[in-house]
UniProtKB/TrEMBL annotation:
Protein name stated in the entry: Glucohydrolase
Keywords in alphabetical order: Glycosidase, Hydrolase
Pfam families (UniProt xref): Alpha-amylase, Malt_amylase_C
Family: Belongs to the glycosyl hydrolase 13 family.
SMART domains documented for this protein: Aamy
Transmembrane residue ranges: none
Organism expressing this protein natively: Pediococcus parvulus
CDD domains registered for this protein in UniProt: AmyAc_SI_OligoGlu_DGase (cd11333)
UniProt domain Glycosyl hydrolase family 13 catalytic: residue ranges: 13-424
Length: 559
Protein backbone atom coordinates (compact mmCIF):
# COMPACT_ATOMS: atom_id res chain seq x y z
CA UNK A 1 0.00 0.00 0.00
CA UNK A 2 1.29 3.36 -0.99
CA UNK A 3 1.48 5.89 1.83
CA UNK A 4 0.00 9.39 1.55
CA UNK A 5 0.49 12.53 3.61
CA UNK A 6 -3.20 12.82 4.45
CA UNK A 7 -3.11 9.42 6.15
CA UNK A 8 -0.64 10.78 8.70
CA UNK A 9 -2.39 14.11 9.15
CA UNK A 10 -4.72 15.40 11.87
CA UNK A 11 -7.44 17.81 10.79
CA UNK A 12 -8.86 20.63 12.90
CA UNK A 13 -12.27 21.89 11.80
CA UNK A 14 -13.06 25.59 12.12
CA UNK A 15 -16.62 26.89 11.89
CA UNK A 16 -15.63 30.49 11.13
CA UNK A 17 -18.95 32.03 12.10
CA UNK A 18 -18.45 30.88 15.69
CA UNK A 19 -14.67 30.89 16.07
CA UNK A 20 -13.47 34.47 16.65
CA UNK A 21 -15.00 37.82 15.84
CA UNK A 22 -12.48 40.61 15.25
CA UNK A 23 -14.65 43.57 14.21
CA UNK A 24 -17.35 43.42 16.89
CA UNK A 25 -20.25 42.59 14.59
CA UNK A 26 -20.92 39.41 16.56
CA UNK A 27 -19.89 37.12 13.69
CA UNK A 28 -16.63 35.21 13.53
CA UNK A 29 -14.41 36.05 10.58
CA UNK A 30 -11.25 35.14 8.65
CA UNK A 31 -9.13 37.56 10.69
CA UNK A 32 -10.32 35.60 13.68
CA UNK A 33 -9.02 32.36 12.21
CA UNK A 34 -5.72 34.05 11.45
CA UNK A 35 -5.38 35.12 15.10
CA UNK A 36 -5.53 31.55 16.29
CA UNK A 37 -3.29 29.72 13.84
CA UNK A 38 -0.67 29.22 16.55
CA UNK A 39 -3.29 27.76 18.87
CA UNK A 40 -4.23 25.19 16.22
CA UNK A 41 -0.61 24.48 15.33
CA UNK A 42 0.29 24.00 18.96
CA UNK A 43 -2.43 21.39 19.33
CA UNK A 44 -0.56 19.37 16.72
CA UNK A 45 -3.02 19.61 13.84
CA UNK A 46 -1.70 19.58 10.27
CA UNK A 47 -4.75 20.70 8.31
CA UNK A 48 -7.56 23.19 8.91
CA UNK A 49 -10.93 22.47 7.36
CA UNK A 50 -12.92 25.67 6.99
CA UNK A 51 -16.69 25.42 6.79
CA UNK A 52 -18.02 27.41 3.80
CA UNK A 53 -16.67 30.95 3.59
CA UNK A 54 -18.17 31.90 0.23
CA UNK A 55 -20.67 34.59 -0.58
CA UNK A 56 -24.03 33.46 0.78
CA UNK A 57 -27.38 34.80 2.01
CA UNK A 58 -26.86 32.44 4.98
CA UNK A 59 -30.12 30.59 4.97
CA UNK A 60 -28.04 27.59 6.07
CA UNK A 61 -24.92 29.36 7.39
CA UNK A 62 -22.98 29.33 4.14
CA UNK A 63 -24.16 25.97 2.79
CA UNK A 64 -26.24 28.02 0.37
CA UNK A 65 -23.67 29.59 -1.91
CA UNK A 66 -24.44 32.57 -4.11
CA UNK A 67 -20.96 32.96 -5.59
CA UNK A 68 -18.26 30.29 -5.36
CA UNK A 69 -15.48 32.72 -6.18
CA UNK A 70 -16.27 35.40 -3.59
CA UNK A 71 -15.76 35.55 0.16
CA UNK A 72 -18.82 36.07 2.39
CA UNK A 73 -18.82 39.75 3.35
CA UNK A 74 -19.41 38.87 7.02
CA UNK A 75 -16.16 36.91 6.97
CA UNK A 76 -13.93 39.43 5.18
CA UNK A 77 -12.37 39.80 1.77
CA UNK A 78 -10.39 37.73 -0.71
CA UNK A 79 -7.31 39.54 0.56
CA UNK A 80 -8.03 38.28 4.05
CA UNK A 81 -8.30 34.79 2.64
CA UNK A 82 -5.06 35.04 0.64
CA UNK A 83 -3.32 36.28 3.74
CA UNK A 84 -4.74 33.49 5.88
CA UNK A 85 -3.64 30.86 3.38
CA UNK A 86 -0.17 32.31 3.17
CA UNK A 87 0.28 32.55 6.95
CA UNK A 88 -1.09 29.05 7.48
CA UNK A 89 1.33 27.67 4.91
CA UNK A 90 4.22 29.48 6.57
CA UNK A 91 3.39 27.67 9.79
CA UNK A 92 3.13 24.32 8.03
CA UNK A 93 -0.66 24.20 8.23
CA UNK A 94 -2.71 23.19 5.22
CA UNK A 95 -6.14 24.58 4.40
CA UNK A 96 -9.02 22.47 3.24
CA UNK A 97 -12.14 24.12 1.83
CA UNK A 98 -15.76 23.06 1.95
CA UNK A 99 -17.07 22.26 -1.51
CA UNK A 100 -20.86 22.54 -1.61
CA UNK A 101 -21.93 21.54 -5.08
CA UNK A 102 -24.94 19.29 -4.67
CA UNK A 103 -26.88 22.54 -4.56
CA UNK A 104 -26.42 26.30 -4.80
CA UNK A 105 -28.26 29.18 -3.20
CA UNK A 106 -31.43 30.30 -4.96
CA UNK A 107 -29.59 33.62 -5.10
CA UNK A 108 -26.79 32.20 -7.26
CA UNK A 109 -26.99 33.80 -10.69
CA UNK A 110 -27.36 30.36 -12.32
CA UNK A 111 -30.60 29.83 -10.42
CA UNK A 112 -31.86 33.37 -10.85
CA UNK A 113 -31.45 32.94 -14.61
CA UNK A 114 -32.82 29.41 -14.47
CA UNK A 115 -36.12 30.40 -12.94
CA UNK A 116 -36.86 33.17 -15.46
CA UNK A 117 -38.36 30.95 -18.17
CA UNK A 118 -38.35 27.37 -19.42
CA UNK A 119 -36.01 27.87 -22.32
CA UNK A 120 -32.97 29.71 -20.99
CA UNK A 121 -29.63 27.93 -20.96
CA UNK A 122 -29.55 27.69 -17.16
CA UNK A 123 -32.92 25.94 -16.90
CA UNK A 124 -31.28 22.54 -17.10
CA UNK A 125 -28.71 23.39 -14.40
CA UNK A 126 -31.42 22.42 -11.90
CA UNK A 127 -34.32 19.97 -11.65
CA UNK A 128 -37.52 21.59 -12.90
CA UNK A 129 -40.60 19.39 -13.25
CA UNK A 130 -44.29 19.79 -14.00
CA UNK A 131 -46.76 19.22 -11.17
CA UNK A 132 -48.13 15.69 -10.89
CA UNK A 133 -51.90 15.63 -10.29
CA UNK A 134 -51.63 19.22 -9.18
CA UNK A 135 -48.99 18.36 -6.59
CA UNK A 136 -45.25 17.74 -6.15
CA UNK A 137 -43.60 15.67 -8.91
CA UNK A 138 -42.71 12.93 -6.39
CA UNK A 139 -42.89 12.14 -2.67
CA UNK A 140 -39.30 12.97 -1.74
CA UNK A 141 -38.79 14.88 1.47
CA UNK A 142 -36.39 17.64 2.25
CA UNK A 143 -33.75 17.11 4.92
CA UNK A 144 -35.04 20.23 6.57
CA UNK A 145 -38.74 19.21 6.77
CA UNK A 146 -41.51 19.29 4.19
CA UNK A 147 -41.41 18.20 0.56
CA UNK A 148 -38.21 18.33 -1.52
CA UNK A 149 -40.00 20.45 -4.13
CA UNK A 150 -40.97 24.09 -4.30
CA UNK A 151 -43.53 25.48 -6.73
CA UNK A 152 -42.48 28.48 -8.79
CA UNK A 153 -45.55 30.27 -10.12
CA UNK A 154 -43.61 32.17 -12.74
CA UNK A 155 -43.17 29.10 -14.96
CA UNK A 156 -45.70 26.78 -13.31
CA UNK A 157 -43.11 24.16 -12.40
CA UNK A 158 -41.50 22.81 -9.26
CA UNK A 159 -37.76 22.75 -8.57
CA UNK A 160 -36.06 20.14 -6.40
CA UNK A 161 -34.33 20.97 -3.12
CA UNK A 162 -33.13 18.11 -0.90
CA UNK A 163 -32.29 20.75 1.73
CA UNK A 164 -33.98 24.12 2.22
CA UNK A 165 -36.05 25.90 -0.42
CA UNK A 166 -33.14 28.27 -0.76
CA UNK A 167 -30.83 25.37 -1.71
CA UNK A 168 -31.95 24.15 -5.16
CA UNK A 169 -30.21 20.92 -6.27
CA UNK A 170 -27.81 21.14 -9.18
CA UNK A 171 -28.37 18.80 -12.10
CA UNK A 172 -25.11 16.85 -12.38
CA UNK A 173 -26.43 14.92 -15.36
CA UNK A 174 -25.85 18.11 -17.32
CA UNK A 175 -22.18 18.03 -18.38
CA UNK A 176 -22.03 21.84 -18.46
CA UNK A 177 -22.81 21.88 -14.72
CA UNK A 178 -20.00 19.43 -14.09
CA UNK A 179 -17.55 21.57 -16.06
CA UNK A 180 -18.62 24.63 -14.05
CA UNK A 181 -17.85 22.74 -10.84
CA UNK A 182 -14.46 21.55 -12.08
CA UNK A 183 -13.59 25.13 -13.02
CA UNK A 184 -14.40 26.51 -9.62
CA UNK A 185 -12.43 23.72 -7.96
CA UNK A 186 -9.42 24.67 -10.10
CA UNK A 187 -9.89 28.30 -9.14
CA UNK A 188 -9.30 27.41 -5.48
CA UNK A 189 -6.68 24.74 -6.05
CA UNK A 190 -4.66 27.11 -8.22
CA UNK A 191 -4.72 29.57 -5.35
CA UNK A 192 -2.99 26.88 -3.33
CA UNK A 193 -5.68 25.37 -1.14
CA UNK A 194 -4.86 21.85 -0.04
CA UNK A 195 -8.07 19.96 -0.48
CA UNK A 196 -11.83 19.75 -0.20
CA UNK A 197 -14.43 18.41 2.15
CA UNK A 198 -17.31 17.68 -0.24
CA UNK A 199 -20.76 18.36 1.11
CA UNK A 200 -23.28 15.51 0.60
CA UNK A 201 -21.33 14.45 -2.45
CA UNK A 202 -23.09 11.09 -2.63
CA UNK A 203 -26.39 12.82 -3.45
CA UNK A 204 -25.30 14.25 -6.81
CA UNK A 205 -26.65 11.48 -9.02
CA UNK A 206 -30.44 11.30 -8.85
CA UNK A 207 -32.33 8.14 -9.85
CA UNK A 208 -33.44 8.47 -13.49
CA UNK A 209 -37.11 9.37 -13.73
CA UNK A 210 -37.05 10.59 -10.10
CA UNK A 211 -39.32 7.77 -8.89
CA UNK A 212 -41.30 7.92 -5.64
CA UNK A 213 -39.48 6.68 -2.55
CA UNK A 214 -41.25 3.50 -1.40
CA UNK A 215 -39.83 3.92 2.14
CA UNK A 216 -40.99 7.43 2.76
CA UNK A 217 -43.80 6.37 5.05
CA UNK A 218 -41.31 4.65 7.38
CA UNK A 219 -40.62 7.87 9.14
CA UNK A 220 -42.90 10.85 9.10
CA UNK A 221 -40.24 13.45 9.44
CA UNK A 222 -37.29 11.89 7.71
CA UNK A 223 -35.84 12.71 4.36
CA UNK A 224 -35.41 10.54 1.30
CA UNK A 225 -31.73 10.07 1.99
CA UNK A 226 -31.33 6.34 1.36
CA UNK A 227 -33.34 6.54 -1.80
CA UNK A 228 -31.47 9.50 -3.24
CA UNK A 229 -27.98 8.60 -2.05
CA UNK A 230 -25.32 6.72 -4.04
CA UNK A 231 -27.18 7.10 -7.33
CA UNK A 232 -26.33 5.27 -10.56
CA UNK A 233 -23.80 7.75 -11.97
CA UNK A 234 -22.12 9.04 -8.85
CA UNK A 235 -18.94 7.02 -9.42
CA UNK A 236 -18.69 8.10 -13.06
CA UNK A 237 -18.92 11.72 -12.00
CA UNK A 238 -16.35 11.38 -9.23
CA UNK A 239 -13.95 9.54 -11.51
CA UNK A 240 -14.36 12.29 -14.07
CA UNK A 241 -13.75 14.94 -11.38
CA UNK A 242 -10.68 13.07 -10.24
CA UNK A 243 -9.28 12.71 -13.73
CA UNK A 244 -9.95 16.27 -14.79
CA UNK A 245 -9.09 18.03 -11.54
CA UNK A 246 -7.99 16.17 -8.42
CA UNK A 247 -5.36 13.94 -10.04
CA UNK A 248 -3.44 17.07 -10.99
CA UNK A 249 -2.96 18.19 -7.39
CA UNK A 250 -1.63 16.42 -4.28
CA UNK A 251 -4.62 17.17 -2.09
CA UNK A 252 -6.79 15.75 0.68
CA UNK A 253 -10.43 14.99 -0.12
CA UNK A 254 -13.19 13.78 2.12
CA UNK A 255 -16.70 13.20 0.88
CA UNK A 256 -19.60 13.66 3.23
CA UNK A 257 -21.72 10.59 2.53
CA UNK A 258 -24.81 10.11 4.69
CA UNK A 259 -26.19 6.56 4.65
CA UNK A 260 -23.05 5.09 3.00
CA UNK A 261 -22.13 1.56 4.06
CA UNK A 262 -18.54 0.25 4.21
CA UNK A 263 -19.10 -1.29 0.76
CA UNK A 264 -20.14 2.08 -0.61
CA UNK A 265 -17.15 3.70 1.06
CA UNK A 266 -14.78 1.24 -0.60
CA UNK A 267 -16.25 2.29 -3.92
CA UNK A 268 -15.73 5.97 -3.14
CA UNK A 269 -12.31 5.70 -1.58
CA UNK A 270 -10.72 2.38 -2.60
CA UNK A 271 -6.98 2.83 -3.14
CA UNK A 272 -7.31 1.86 -6.81
CA UNK A 273 -10.57 3.69 -7.50
CA UNK A 274 -9.37 7.24 -8.24
CA UNK A 275 -12.37 8.96 -6.71
CA UNK A 276 -11.96 10.35 -3.15
CA UNK A 277 -9.44 9.76 -0.37
CA UNK A 278 -11.94 9.16 2.44
CA UNK A 279 -15.56 9.73 3.41
CA UNK A 280 -17.45 10.84 6.49
CA UNK A 281 -19.74 7.94 7.31
CA UNK A 282 -22.80 8.42 9.54
CA UNK A 283 -23.53 5.02 11.05
CA UNK A 284 -22.11 5.81 14.49
CA UNK A 285 -23.95 9.14 14.47
CA UNK A 286 -27.28 7.40 13.89
CA UNK A 287 -27.12 5.05 16.87
CA UNK A 288 -29.10 7.32 19.18
CA UNK A 289 -31.78 8.25 16.68
CA UNK A 290 -35.48 7.96 17.46
CA UNK A 291 -37.20 4.58 17.30
CA UNK A 292 -40.54 6.39 16.93
CA UNK A 293 -40.17 7.85 13.49
CA UNK A 294 -38.77 11.17 14.69
CA UNK A 295 -35.43 10.79 12.97
CA UNK A 296 -32.61 12.46 14.84
CA UNK A 297 -34.94 13.91 17.49
CA UNK A 298 -34.51 11.77 20.57
CA UNK A 299 -32.73 11.55 23.92
CA UNK A 300 -31.60 7.97 23.43
CA UNK A 301 -28.35 6.73 24.87
CA UNK A 302 -26.04 4.64 22.75
CA UNK A 303 -25.37 1.04 23.78
CA UNK A 304 -21.63 0.48 23.88
CA UNK A 305 -21.93 -2.89 22.16
CA UNK A 306 -23.67 -1.20 19.20
CA UNK A 307 -21.00 1.45 19.00
CA UNK A 308 -18.33 -1.26 18.99
CA UNK A 309 -20.08 -3.09 16.20
CA UNK A 310 -20.29 -0.04 13.97
CA UNK A 311 -16.81 1.34 14.62
CA UNK A 312 -15.23 -2.09 14.26
CA UNK A 313 -17.02 -2.88 11.03
CA UNK A 314 -15.61 0.28 9.45
CA UNK A 315 -12.14 -0.44 10.84
CA UNK A 316 -11.93 -3.99 9.55
CA UNK A 317 -13.81 -3.72 6.29
CA UNK A 318 -11.79 -0.80 4.99
CA UNK A 319 -8.43 -2.09 6.22
CA UNK A 320 -5.97 -2.43 3.34
CA UNK A 321 -8.56 -1.33 0.77
CA UNK A 322 -9.61 2.19 1.60
CA UNK A 323 -9.13 4.84 4.27
CA UNK A 324 -11.33 5.91 7.20
CA UNK A 325 -12.04 9.34 8.56
CA UNK A 326 -12.40 9.44 12.34
CA UNK A 327 -14.80 11.90 13.93
CA UNK A 328 -17.08 12.35 16.91
CA UNK A 329 -18.05 15.95 16.25
CA UNK A 330 -18.66 18.51 13.59
CA UNK A 331 -20.90 21.53 13.05
CA UNK A 332 -23.93 19.24 12.52
CA UNK A 333 -23.54 17.04 15.58
CA UNK A 334 -24.13 17.58 19.30
CA UNK A 335 -21.08 17.76 21.56
CA UNK A 336 -19.58 14.31 22.08
CA UNK A 337 -18.85 14.69 25.80
CA UNK A 338 -22.55 15.38 26.37
CA UNK A 339 -23.65 12.69 23.95
CA UNK A 340 -21.46 9.60 24.51
CA UNK A 341 -19.62 10.79 27.62
CA UNK A 342 -20.60 12.46 30.88
CA UNK A 343 -20.63 16.24 31.06
CA UNK A 344 -21.12 16.47 34.84
CA UNK A 345 -18.58 18.49 36.80
CA UNK A 346 -17.08 15.31 38.16
CA UNK A 347 -16.55 13.39 34.94
CA UNK A 348 -16.47 15.85 32.05
CA UNK A 349 -12.70 16.00 31.71
CA UNK A 350 -12.13 12.30 32.26
CA UNK A 351 -14.84 11.19 29.85
CA UNK A 352 -13.83 13.70 27.17
CA UNK A 353 -10.30 12.31 27.28
CA UNK A 354 -11.63 8.77 27.23
CA UNK A 355 -13.65 9.47 24.08
CA UNK A 356 -10.76 11.23 22.37
CA UNK A 357 -8.43 8.36 23.16
CA UNK A 358 -10.85 5.71 21.95
CA UNK A 359 -11.16 7.38 18.56
CA UNK A 360 -7.68 8.71 17.96
CA UNK A 361 -5.96 5.34 18.18
CA UNK A 362 -8.07 3.84 15.43
CA UNK A 363 -7.00 3.61 11.80
CA UNK A 364 -7.92 6.68 9.78
CA UNK A 365 -7.46 10.43 9.67
CA UNK A 366 -8.78 12.10 12.84
CA UNK A 367 -10.88 15.26 12.69
CA UNK A 368 -11.13 17.51 15.74
CA UNK A 369 -13.99 20.01 15.80
CA UNK A 370 -13.37 23.41 17.40
CA UNK A 371 -14.03 23.26 21.13
CA UNK A 372 -13.80 19.46 21.29
CA UNK A 373 -10.20 19.86 22.50
CA UNK A 374 -11.44 21.74 25.58
CA UNK A 375 -14.46 19.52 26.16
CA UNK A 376 -17.18 21.99 25.19
CA UNK A 377 -20.65 20.75 26.10
CA UNK A 378 -24.17 20.88 24.68
CA UNK A 379 -26.11 24.07 25.29
CA UNK A 380 -29.62 24.06 26.75
CA UNK A 381 -31.43 27.18 25.60
CA UNK A 382 -34.82 27.45 27.29
CA UNK A 383 -36.58 29.11 24.43
CA UNK A 384 -36.89 27.83 20.87
CA UNK A 385 -36.34 31.42 19.67
CA UNK A 386 -32.78 31.28 20.94
CA UNK A 387 -31.98 28.64 18.34
CA UNK A 388 -30.76 29.76 14.93
CA UNK A 389 -30.35 26.51 12.99
CA UNK A 390 -33.00 26.13 10.29
CA UNK A 391 -33.09 22.35 10.67
CA UNK A 392 -33.98 22.77 14.35
CA UNK A 393 -36.50 25.55 13.76
CA UNK A 394 -38.22 23.76 10.88
CA UNK A 395 -38.41 20.51 12.82
CA UNK A 396 -39.94 22.28 15.81
CA UNK A 397 -42.57 23.85 13.58
CA UNK A 398 -43.39 20.59 11.82
CA UNK A 399 -43.30 18.19 14.76
CA UNK A 400 -44.73 20.40 17.50
CA UNK A 401 -46.84 23.04 15.80
CA UNK A 402 -48.12 21.48 12.57
CA UNK A 403 -48.34 17.78 13.34
CA UNK A 404 -48.55 18.04 17.14
CA UNK A 405 -46.64 14.79 17.49
CA UNK A 406 -44.86 15.78 20.68
CA UNK A 407 -45.28 18.48 23.30
CA UNK A 408 -43.14 21.62 23.24
CA UNK A 409 -41.25 20.53 26.37
CA UNK A 410 -40.53 17.07 24.99
CA UNK A 411 -39.23 18.60 21.77
CA UNK A 412 -37.02 20.99 23.73
CA UNK A 413 -35.42 17.97 25.40
CA UNK A 414 -34.71 16.45 22.01
CA UNK A 415 -33.29 19.75 20.83
CA UNK A 416 -31.03 19.97 23.87
CA UNK A 417 -29.74 16.53 23.01
CA UNK A 418 -29.54 16.67 19.22
CA UNK A 419 -29.66 20.18 17.77
CA UNK A 420 -26.88 21.28 15.47
CA UNK A 421 -26.66 24.50 17.48
CA UNK A 422 -25.02 22.49 20.26
CA UNK A 423 -21.92 22.64 18.08
CA UNK A 424 -22.41 26.19 16.88
CA UNK A 425 -22.32 28.30 20.03
CA UNK A 426 -19.23 30.55 20.07
CA UNK A 427 -15.81 29.16 20.81
CA UNK A 428 -14.98 29.69 24.47
CA UNK A 429 -11.62 31.44 24.62
CA UNK A 430 -11.65 32.82 28.16
CA UNK A 431 -13.91 33.75 31.06
CA UNK A 432 -14.34 37.36 29.91
CA UNK A 433 -17.15 39.05 28.01
CA UNK A 434 -18.85 36.64 25.59
CA UNK A 435 -16.17 34.09 26.38
CA UNK A 436 -13.70 36.22 24.44
CA UNK A 437 -15.49 35.45 21.19
CA UNK A 438 -16.75 38.94 20.45
CA UNK A 439 -16.94 42.42 21.93
CA UNK A 440 -20.25 42.85 20.10
CA UNK A 441 -23.49 40.95 20.31
CA UNK A 442 -22.85 37.31 19.27
CA UNK A 443 -25.06 35.99 16.43
CA UNK A 444 -25.94 33.07 18.73
CA UNK A 445 -25.73 33.04 22.52
CA UNK A 446 -22.60 31.84 24.25
CA UNK A 447 -22.88 28.61 26.23
CA UNK A 448 -23.21 29.67 29.91
CA UNK A 449 -20.63 27.00 30.81
CA UNK A 450 -17.83 29.26 29.55
CA UNK A 451 -16.50 30.59 32.89
CA UNK A 452 -15.33 27.06 33.62
CA UNK A 453 -14.80 25.62 30.16
CA UNK A 454 -12.52 27.83 28.10
CA UNK A 455 -9.21 27.85 26.27
CA UNK A 456 -7.37 30.12 28.71
CA UNK A 457 -7.99 27.81 31.63
CA UNK A 458 -7.19 24.73 29.53
CA UNK A 459 -3.83 26.20 28.55
CA UNK A 460 -2.99 26.89 32.20
CA UNK A 461 -3.81 23.39 33.37
CA UNK A 462 -1.24 20.76 32.41
CA UNK A 463 -3.93 18.14 33.02
CA UNK A 464 -6.39 19.62 30.56
CA UNK A 465 -8.16 17.95 27.69
CA UNK A 466 -6.24 20.26 25.37
CA UNK A 467 -2.87 18.85 26.41
CA UNK A 468 -4.26 15.33 26.25
CA UNK A 469 -5.25 15.92 22.61
CA UNK A 470 -1.86 17.47 21.98
CA UNK A 471 -0.23 14.35 23.36
CA UNK A 472 -2.40 12.10 21.18
CA UNK A 473 -1.39 14.06 18.11
CA UNK A 474 2.27 13.74 19.09
CA UNK A 475 1.95 10.00 19.49
CA UNK A 476 0.20 9.63 16.15
CA UNK A 477 3.01 11.49 14.45
CA UNK A 478 5.54 9.27 16.16
CA UNK A 479 4.20 5.70 15.98
CA UNK A 480 3.51 4.13 12.58
CA UNK A 481 1.33 1.51 14.20
CA UNK A 482 -1.19 4.19 15.21
CA UNK A 483 -1.55 5.33 11.64
CA UNK A 484 -1.20 2.12 9.68
CA UNK A 485 -1.73 -0.81 12.03
CA UNK A 486 -4.63 -3.18 11.52
CA UNK A 487 -7.45 -3.32 14.05
CA UNK A 488 -8.60 -6.12 16.27
CA UNK A 489 -11.62 -5.73 18.58
CA UNK A 490 -11.44 -7.42 21.99
CA UNK A 491 -14.50 -8.69 23.86
CA UNK A 492 -17.29 -7.46 21.56
CA UNK A 493 -19.95 -8.30 24.17
CA UNK A 494 -18.42 -6.36 27.04
CA UNK A 495 -21.02 -3.67 27.75
CA UNK A 496 -18.73 -1.47 29.81
CA UNK A 497 -15.26 -1.46 28.33
CA UNK A 498 -14.23 -0.83 24.73
CA UNK A 499 -10.85 -2.46 24.11
CA UNK A 500 -8.97 -3.11 20.90
CA UNK A 501 -5.50 -3.76 19.54
CA UNK A 502 -3.65 -2.37 16.58
CA UNK A 503 -0.83 -4.33 14.97
CA UNK A 504 1.86 -3.46 12.46
CA UNK A 505 4.75 -5.85 11.77
CA UNK A 506 6.09 -6.69 15.26
CA UNK A 507 4.54 -3.67 16.96
CA UNK A 508 1.20 -3.46 18.74
CA UNK A 509 -0.81 -1.11 20.84
CA UNK A 510 -3.53 -2.08 23.27
CA UNK A 511 -6.28 0.50 23.79
CA UNK A 512 -8.68 0.26 26.73
CA UNK A 513 -11.58 2.59 27.51
CA UNK A 514 -13.98 2.27 30.42
CA UNK A 515 -17.24 3.75 29.16
CA UNK A 516 -18.92 3.86 32.58
CA UNK A 517 -18.82 5.88 35.79
CA UNK A 518 -18.04 2.73 37.73
CA UNK A 519 -14.82 1.00 38.61
CA UNK A 520 -14.40 -2.33 36.84
CA UNK A 521 -11.63 -4.88 36.68
CA UNK A 522 -10.45 -6.48 33.47
CA UNK A 523 -7.47 -8.46 32.26
CA UNK A 524 -6.16 -8.35 28.76
CA UNK A 525 -3.35 -10.10 27.05
CA UNK A 526 -0.61 -9.00 26.94
CA UNK A 527 -0.60 -7.61 30.51
CA UNK A 528 1.12 -10.73 31.69
CA UNK A 529 3.02 -12.11 28.76
CA UNK A 530 4.67 -9.01 27.39
CA UNK A 531 6.61 -6.02 28.38
CA UNK A 532 4.05 -3.25 27.91
CA UNK A 533 4.86 0.38 27.98
CA UNK A 534 2.07 2.72 29.07
CA UNK A 535 2.05 5.56 26.56
CA UNK A 536 -1.09 7.39 27.61
CA UNK A 537 -3.59 7.30 30.48
CA UNK A 538 -6.23 9.79 31.62
CA UNK A 539 -5.39 9.01 35.27
CA UNK A 540 -1.92 9.72 36.52
CA UNK A 541 -1.01 6.31 37.90
CA UNK A 542 -1.51 2.96 36.22
CA UNK A 543 -3.39 0.34 38.19
CA UNK A 544 -3.33 -2.22 35.39
CA UNK A 545 -6.24 -4.51 36.30
CA UNK A 546 -8.48 -1.90 37.85
CA UNK A 547 -10.18 0.56 35.54
CA UNK A 548 -11.53 3.60 37.33
CA UNK A 549 -14.58 5.57 36.07
CA UNK A 550 -13.98 6.58 32.43
CA UNK A 551 -10.38 5.47 32.64
CA UNK A 552 -8.76 5.08 29.24
CA UNK A 553 -5.24 4.11 28.34
CA UNK A 554 -2.90 2.90 25.66
CA UNK A 555 -0.05 0.41 25.97
CA UNK A 556 2.66 -0.14 23.40
CA UNK A 557 4.57 -3.40 23.05
CA UNK A 558 6.64 -5.38 20.63
CA UNK A 559 5.84 -8.96 19.81
O1 LIG B 1 -25.00 18.05 5.90
C1 LIG B 1 -25.71 17.03 5.27
C2 LIG B 1 -26.45 16.22 6.20
O2 LIG B 1 -26.42 15.02 6.12
C3 LIG B 1 -27.16 16.96 7.27
O3 LIG B 1 -28.30 17.53 6.74
C4 LIG B 1 -27.50 16.08 8.36
O4 LIG B 1 -28.47 15.16 7.96
C5 LIG B 1 -28.03 16.91 9.47
O5 LIG B 1 -27.25 18.05 9.60
C6 LIG B 1 -27.98 16.14 10.73
O6 LIG B 1 -28.54 16.92 11.69
C7 LIG B 1 -24.32 18.95 5.11
C8 LIG B 1 -23.72 20.03 5.97
O7 LIG B 1 -22.77 19.47 6.83
C9 LIG B 1 -24.82 20.74 6.69
O8 LIG B 1 -24.34 21.71 7.59
C10 LIG B 1 -25.69 21.39 5.64
O9 LIG B 1 -26.81 21.98 6.25
C11 LIG B 1 -26.19 20.38 4.61
O10 LIG B 1 -25.15 19.53 4.13
C12 LIG B 1 -26.72 21.10 3.39
O11 LIG B 1 -25.69 21.68 2.67
CA1 LIG C 1 -16.85 39.77 12.57
Amino acid sequence: MEKHWWQEAVVYQVYPRSFQDTNDDGIGDLQGVLQHLDYIKRLGADVIWLNPIYSSPNDDNGYDIADYRKIMTDFGTMNDFNHLLEEAHKKGLKIMMDLVVNHTSDEHHWFMESRKNKTNKFRDYYFWRDPKDGKEPNNWKSNFSGPAWNYDAKTGQYYMHLFSKKQPDLNWDNSIVREEVYDLMKFWLDKGVDGFRMDVINLISKKPGLPDDPNVAKSEVEDAMEWVANGPKVHDYLKEMNKKVLSKYNVITVGETPSATPDDAIKYTGFNRHELEMVFQFEHMGLDWSKNGLGKWSTNKVALTDLKKVMSRWQTELNGKAWNSLYWNNHDQPRIVSRFGNDSKKYRVLSAKMLGLLLHFMQGTPYIYQGEEIGMTNVHFDNIHEYKDLETLNAYKEIVEDKKKVSPSEMMEYIHHSSRDNARTPMQWNDGKNAGFSEGNPWIKVNPAYPEINVASALEDTNSIYYFYQKMNELRHKYDVIVYGNYELLDPDDEKVFAYKRNLRNESILVIANFTDQEVSRTYQPYNDFDCKLVLDNYDDDQKLILRPYEAKVYYYER
